[in-house]
Amino acid sequence: MIAFGLLALVAVSGVISASVPFHFLSDEYIDHINSLQTTWKAGRNFPKDMPLSNIKRRMGVIRGEKSKNLKTVRHVRVEGETIPDTFDARENWPDCKSIGLIRDQSDCGSCWAVAAAAAMSDRICILSKGKDQSLVSDEDLNSCCKSCGDCDGGIPYAAWEYWQQTGIVTGGVYQQTSYDFLGVHAIKLIGWGEENNVPYWLVANSWNEDWGDKGTFKIRRGTNECGIEEEPIAGLPLL
Length: 239
Known about the structure:
Elements: E1 9-15, H1 27-35, H2 52-58, E2 87-88, H3 89-92, H4 111-127, E3 135-136, H5 138-144, E4 149-150, E5 153-154, H6 156-165, E6 170-171, E7 181-195, E8 198-204, E9 216-220
Antiparallel strand pairs: 1-7, 2-7, 3-6, 4-5, 7-8, 8-9
GO molecular function: cysteine-type endopeptidase activity
Pfam families: Peptidase_C1, Propeptide_C1
Signal peptide: 1-18
């Protein structure tokens, strides 16, 4: 089932080049990236004077052991089933407003909670065929799951396990150009497609709508950019 593979929480590694003699938020660095003529165009998403520590803080995934209580699901393509070349969950399930909702984690390393709660909300709506538009609270998950984490970072697997065992209340264009490790960030996959013969994943971030393309971005698909294809995490609600 294609839907099960979407709206998953995945972790991506943030990178920044230490070999380029420019400040990482300078216009010169942006121009340098664009001069490489990759599949994406760099732009400004943060003020020039934002400290690197503020950006690192937002990458709040702590890598730990995978939960033994969560099943590993491998999808087998059904005979005769075709996967579309382009897919956007927002268009496929237009009645589920949560899919297109861009959350804001603010100055907090809670991406592990925000992305998980967002994907959980989408799954509830999809499984209920749009009847249940509940928004799972990332604040509750971040504050109450002490074994998961907090604003200093957390474990995505633990978030889904917490949802399974305890429950959570309801609330209310890229291609890697350098390889220096900056941090690990959790985001939500909502679709895929191909642009200029380059396959991509469509991603919803949690840094507000004034970041990226109204809060979303595309990242190259099939090459494990920044580790995005290594550890997708997803689940289904019991309705």
